[in-house]
Specification:
Strand order of the largest sheet of chain B: 12-11-10-13-14-16-15
Number of helices of chain A: 2
Order of helices and strands of chain A: HH
Number of helices of chain B: 15
Largest sheet of chain A: none
Structural class of chain A: mainly alpha
Structural class of chain B: alpha/beta
Shape of chain B: globular
Strand content of chain A: under 5%
CATH topology of the largest domain in chain B: Rossmann fold
Largest interface: A-B, 30 and 33 residues
Helix content of chain B: 25-40%
Number of strands of chain A: 0
Helix content of chain A: over 70%
Strand content of chain B: 15-25%
Oligomer: heterodimer
């Protein structure tokens, strides 16, 4: 993950949950807020997916490591 | 270019500069403007359109001669496959809206694979055709630029996710908010109406509650969003999150007014069988090209018509009945029946700009034949509507009418009268026949065996 993404991903959701006053008028551009939410949520999901992927790869690597050592032990016995 | 007299632009098609829809000689056409040339060519040449058509996700179209074009901005004119009955999201049951949402997300995923993306996600871009949701707006695709957020994200949340969440987590009747809010349910409203527990769902927390808070937070601030980038993985993550969120929303159709009607009626098996037989005979005599079944409940009689290959719209006021009807259509892969939610005492009006963007129910008619079975006593007694008014309404929406008269002595009418004063002195068979004869020619009538009810076959008078 890029360094600059950290505040976007973890700090902004927390900040956004502070209660704010309500503004409803005809000049509001709701689209900007939707872009911010997407960037925050999308980045978070991307990080989670990446972590899941790395975790799977790490698990597979460790499993391979053990099965390789087992195999080499078995071949020595033969 | 055609003379403006021979064509008629669709009142709902004026927002998108990429093109518009128009009527010509009874067919719908779409003009594609030169401004949309690059994206249209990409859609067609990339293979995305072909792939979507093969999967049944988008309406097929033919390119026609440019001579049909309406203005000098025309790049192409296409004639999409014609849709027998246009329906709107506020007329759909929970699962119809849910399937429409999942279809939209599926299209977006497909588009990404071809380097394109949906630029708008209006629920009005979906129509229910041959029993399944189909995307109808060929001009909604644009080139995907790496790093760009999804421009249609807010619209998807407003048109699909928010109403579905409200219907699932609060009350299914909140789907009617779509009739008031033409651009979907405002996110802050959805957030206020949803139960507090929905904050424990990741998708509802992020796409509704957090979304609403962010809107409030940045409502009166100028933000430079150009610098905000969303990786492709993040983009796909948003789509996946919305998809799992939508899939996780459930609603069980039960416990509403009409959901169990056929288990709670005074019809004997014999009478029901006879009624089906008479309806079938009358339909055979009319041989209609289209049928509207009003007060259809779960669509038992609609299926007599749709089973003959007649395009049939199956209306009911009860969300549970419409839901059950739709689930049955889906289970049986039926292509000729369309269940629709409609309150006939307050049918869909023309709404939107100049009250013309979305058609009223009457504008979408007339149907060749209408079935009004076990309905008139509800209109006459529950809604205090005189027979003359009921006949006038039916005459405005159909050519032939198969209508059932339920006398006052019938136990179902007695149920209606149990909690109200009987002010209906004119509720008699004779008054019914006299008033309907003013609008229709009474061609046949048949008492239903084992009941006091009578079925009529009528043909609308030419003068009405």
């Amino acid at each position: 993950m890029k360094r600059s993404m950290l505040p976007t991903t973890f700090v902004m959701p927390a900040l956004l949950y502070v209660p704010f006053h309500q503004v409803v008028h005809a000049y509001v551009d709701w689209g900007s807020a939707s872009i911010i939410v997407q960037v925050v949520v999308g980045s978070l999901v991307a990080v989670l997916v990446a972590m899941k992927l790395y975790w799977k790869q790490t698990k597979a690597f460790v499993r391979n490591l053990f099965s390789r050592s087992k195999k080499s032990e078995q071949s020595k016995e033969h | 270019m055609n003379s403006p007299k021979s064509i008629e632009s669709l009142p709902s098609s004026f927002r998108d500069p990429s093109g518009f829809v128009f009527w010509q000689d009874g067919s719908v056409y779409r003009q594609i403007n030169t401004i949309y040339k690059d994206d249209y060519d990409r859609l067609m040449e990339s293979g995305l359109h072909k792939s979507l058509v093969e999967k049944g996700l988008i309406i097929p179209h033919d390119e026609v001669a440019l001579g049909s074009a309406v203005s000098e901005f025309a790049y192409k004119v296409i004639r999409p496959e014609q849709i027998p009955f246009v329906s709107y999201p506020y007329e759909w049951s929970f699962s119809q809206l849910k399937d429409a949402a999942l279809t939209t997300l599926d299209i977006q995923k497909n588009a990404l694979e071809f380097g394109m993306s949906l630029k708008d996600c209006s629920a009005y871009n979906i129509q229910l055709v041959k029993g399944r949701p189909v995307f109808i707006d060929t001009l909604s695709f644009e080139k995907y630029h790496e790093g760009s957020p999804w421009v249609a994200y807010r619209q998807f949340c407003q048109h699909f996710f928010a109403p579905l969440a409200l219907m699932s987590c609060r009350d299914v009747r909140l789907g009617q908010l779509l009739r008031i809010h033409l651009d979907g349910v405002p996110i802050d409203l959805a957030s206020k109406l949803l139960p507090w527990r929905t904050r424990f769902s990741f998708s509802l927390l992020s796409h509704i509650h957090l979304h609403a808070k962010t809107q409030t937070r940045y409502a009166d601030r100028q933000i430079d969003t150009k610098g905000l980038k969303l990786s492709r993985r993040g983009f796909i993550g948003i789509i996946d999150s919305l998809e799992s969120g939508v899939k996780g929303l459930k609603w069980n159709p039960g416990g509403t007014e009409w959901g169990d009607y056929y288990r709670d009626t005074n019809y004997s098996a014999e009478a029901l069988q006879h009624k089906k037989q008479v309806v079938e005979e009358f339909l055979k005599a009319v041989n209609p090209s289209s049928v509207w079944d009003l007060g259809a409940n779960i669509g038992i009689f609609s299926r007599i018509a749709s089973g003959k290959g007649i395009p049939t719209v199956s209306f009911d006021i009860d969300p549970a009945a419409v839901e059950k009807n739709y689930l049955e259509c889906r289970r049986r892969n039926e292509t000729c029946i369309l269940p629709i939610l409609s309150d006939l005492t307050n049918p869909s009006p023309g709404i939107g700009w100049q009250n013309q963007e979305r058609m009223s129910l009457a504008e979408r008619g007339p149907a060749d034949a209408v079935l009004a079975l076990a309905l008139t006593h509800h209109l006459a007694i529950s809604n205090n509507t005189p027979f003359a008014k009921i006949a006038e309404f039916f005459a405005s929406i159909c050519n032939s009418l198969i209508v059932e008269f339920v006398p006052k002595s019938d136990s179902q009418v007695q149920r209606l009268l149990a909690t109200r004063k009987d002010i209906f002195v004119n509720y008699t068979q004779q008054a019914f026949e006299t008033e309907f004869a003013g609008r229709f020619v009474l061609e046949r009538s048949q008492p239903i065996t084992g009941s006091e009810r009578i079925l009529y076959l009528m043909r609308r008078r030419e003068s009405t």
